[in-house]
Amino acid sequence: MRALVLILLLVPTGADAAEIWSFGECRSELARERTEFRRQLRNAQPDDPMFVPFPFPRNEHEAVADLIAFHRKAFADLPDNQLAPGNRRFFATLDEGRARFEVARVANWTPSRCGRRSASDFFYLVRVFDTSTGEEISRGAVDNWGLTMALAHVAGEAGGFRALPRLTVARGASVTSPQFVHTVGQELHCEILWPCIAYREGANAFIVRDGETYRLALERPLLSFRQELGNPQARRQLLDRFTGTPETFVTLGGDRVAVAEPVAPH
Amino acid sequence: MTFRALLLVSLLSFPGCNLGGNPDFRLGVPYHSQPPASFYCGPASVQMWADYDYDPPFVPTQEEIAQWMGGVNCGSSEEGIRQAVNRFTATSDAVWDFDGDINFAPFMSRQITSIDNYFPVIAILDGGLHAGVVNGGKWHALASEGYQWDYVYFHDPLERADVYYTSAIWIERNCPVGSTCSQIISHAATLGAATNLNRYGSDIYDSSGCHVTGCGPKTWNEPPVED
Fold this sequence. Notes:
The complex is a heterodimer. Chain A is an alpha+beta fold. Chain A has helices at 31-43, 60-74, 85-95, 225-229, 232-242; strands at residues 9-12, 99-108, 122-130, 135-143, 148-153, 175-182, 196-201, 204-209, 212-216, 223-224, 248-253, 256-263.
């Protein structure tokens, strides 16, 4: 039995105070299911599998508590000697009071923003550090309903986690609303635990990944995830259309997909 | 390969014999990342599967796989990945398994059954925009009906090995609403899937207690089956 001996040292990254923004919107067809799930999640008791200590977490502390509770429940039936090294280290760091957390909000621009049950506009990216070494040992994601999405551990391999980009974007004083963003596209791929940066500049919006900047061509017709990526034949036609061009495309959340144009760094 | 083939034959005599009894399971597929800023998630996934089947002298490079596929300048096609699996791994019956998004229950049943039979699966995510290898996870049967992924270990060639996805987000990424569910899978390794689905119930549950017909904790009052 792994007792919860946890000293919560939590460091918001500064991204949490800002409004999360996106260009996606959810269709109403699953609204009833989401409303019902919201009710059930709020009323769930501790023995229900959907139970989380803080449904719809209001802050980073509650999101961290939800992540830990889910992970402990998922591995509750495994003795310590059967845990994978990364999990064992994660639990030991928590139980021995050596965990420090950094939490950032990440805008969800993928189709899962409008999922079957929940509408996850954003999620909390939780980075777990071992204070005895300073190393980031785990990285997890908890959505704005309090449900754990993903988790990864460093299990002794060299290099550890790829660092997160800094939210300060060097494009001048006119840059506004920088935020982390999770989106998928052709080549331009910003994973749950390795998000990119999105920001606005005047009427334009940009995404930065690994130092490369793309402008979202929102003045052009948006593409439809369902119609143009929803079946393999249509998707192949779309991919062929972009082959050999500098342009690509990214999801905006729900059904919306935008063309993205690379821009030269300032 | 011989061992795995024999194991599969024996397992198929008792399809799903491991289902319900696995606390936390990883196939042990060796991880390979794709080159940065490349479209090589398909070749990287095939390489991982090949490395699971063969020792290094017989494991192809991603470049070899990509060239055999005719180049992947705009991303791999599912059909290209399927053919490459049959060419470069010990599996010769890989199929491109796709289904409508509302049919995620039998689709996930085939995925779990393949893992249960010790065969990797190449998951096609986000409506075909990304691919990687399912390396295992945890599932359990419910006493009343259904069996479920609790979570999945996903070898993401873009990022790292064994990224742990909860079943809810895994279903969303495998079977986006309005799109298709898609994976490359050994046909023989899925033969127990229908039996498993019938044996354990008609639905795959995710860890939030939701299934095809809706969400709710009522079916979770039963304890998991302990084999």
